[in-house]
User: Fold this.
Amino acid sequence: MRFVVLSLGSPLPSGVSLAPPETATLVVDSAVHPSGFDGGLSELSAFAVIDAASLDEVLDLLPPVGTFEVRPTEVA
Amino acid sequence: MTDALPDDAASDAASTALADAWRTSWSRLIGLLIGQYARPDLAEDAVSDAFEAAARHWPVDGVPMNTGAWLLTAARRRVLDRLRSEAVHRRKEPLMVVDDEMRAASAAVVDPGAHVADEQLRLIFACCHPAIAPDDRVALTLRFVVGLTTTEIARLLLVQETAMAARLTRAKKRLASSGIPFATPPAARLDERLDVVATVVYLAFTSGYHPGVGDVPLRVDLGDEAIRLLRVLDSLLPSRPVVRALLALLLLQHSRRDTRIAPDGTLILLPDQDRSRWHRDEIAEGIAILESLPSALPARETPSGADPSADTSVVTRLAEEYRLQALIAAEHATAPTAADTRWYVIAGLYLQLERLTGSPVVRLARAVAVAEASGPEAGLELLDGLEVALPRHHRVPAVRAELLVRAGDPTAAAASYREALALVTNPTERTHLESRLAALDLPAG
Assistant:
């Protein structure tokens, strides 16, 4: 089995740290919004870590329908 | 040569050179520095500092041969100082190691193919990125691209200066940290992004006309700046319908700038403006652009599967909206007198605009045009239901009152004026409505 551990508020040893919530971009059915997802964590259904040169490249990879939050990882 | 000049001549030369450099170099310098260091926050401070240094040095040392290069050198030195002191600071916090090498690497991935002339364009697209909140796009563009100060932007957008400073700080942080590219969008996204840019430019333009701003000591006319920006866009991305249509619209609207405000500061409405003082050359240019535009209507609705940007110069709905608005402005601009206005043409254009946008505000404007073309009763018919669509909008009862007066029903007009007075907030408009109500010839009893 594989597990995903989400850490809320504290760093995770050997984990991937997210940039702060102010850096988040929300995409709902291809429409771009300048904020993060403000619903509950229970909505979370999948995640991906993507290497890309910019936010636009990530937007191009997203399915046309669905709700996605895109956030850079913390540079560390 | 400059040292031979008397002191105040030297300082005149310096301030002229500074103003020129600010107009031609501000956004290019910011663009260049962001392109090189990928730090929008530092770029802006550095360019500001470089201009401050120029204001100190040029009157004394003389104006340099190449002002742009002088400013770039000064600004670059400033960025490097800041990066160095940040690196020193970080060495004391070993957990957050972001070294210059990494920064150089991230700067290098920024659109490597583009050449320097496009820096300004890339800057505009970055400031107007959809991942930035709409209000912030306007503020960022006025700061980074036009070069206004926080104080000036706050006054123009009617926001407290501290709130504007906070907003700009937040927006800059977002620009620097959300992964927003400093690049011209790829062809598939270009038209969609150009629409966002056009909206920002139009908002900047209209905020320059905002009534109640008072005597803002602005260094620039925002109308001129918006038009200049569109010309830059038009030269770098030629023949884009949305850019051409908006340029025509702004030229036509701006051509009336000298006649909109009376010496006492009150607004002069269109029919009462002195048409001999409208800028004829700008009107002619606006009309020439309109004549060269494709009039193809956009598809009624874009199916979500199809890619609306596949055609490189697709006429977006926004482009068509601006084109129709510009055609309406052109009708007003070319009527020899207010009485000669071809209202039936304007009414037809508003009908097209209403079909395109479905906007009740457009219907209100159409009702006014139809009343002028076909009589007040026809206009009144179009007002039906607008109070529901535009609640709290004093213009609906105000227009209704005006048309009722013309239709010969002063009693009903008085009721509508009172309704409008209950909703109006602007003191100038309140005074206007009160005088209209007082002038009514109401039947006795």
Q: What stands out?
A: Residues 7-37 of chain B form the longest helix (31 residues). Residues 57 and 63 of chain B are 8 Å apart (CA to CA).
